[in-house]
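Re: the request from the purification team.
They wanted to know what the chain is likely to look like in 3D before they choose a buffer screen. I agreed to run a prediction and write the result into the notebook, where they can find it.
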Amino acid sequence: MTWQSKLWKEKKGFKYHEFWPELFFVVFLILSFLISVFLPSKVMSYIVIFILAIGCGRYIQFRKRGFPYFLIVVGLLIGYLLGNLLGNRYGNWRTILFLFIFGTVLSYYLHERGYMK
């Protein structure tokens, strides 16, 4: 056994291949929180969440509905809602939730049918 393989075997760091969904959940939660906090108006908040929802619909369609991918999308939604509720107080959380679900389902459907690529 060489010293490189021994070093690799005894490594006790972050196991990325086991915990990547949680890592991306936290990263997207923080990023969407910051985006939501710094938006200047209600209209911008609604536009941004709809655009994020379209991206999430494409992401879920591309990844074929696996659980870790839903966890990442939920992290994005929770961060955005928290930023909107705590940060700028622009927009209604029900409207944001509706736009996110509508945009995600619409984007998923359009990508699944081949209308968008």
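For the purification team: Residues 38-117 form one domain.
Please add any questions underneath this entry.
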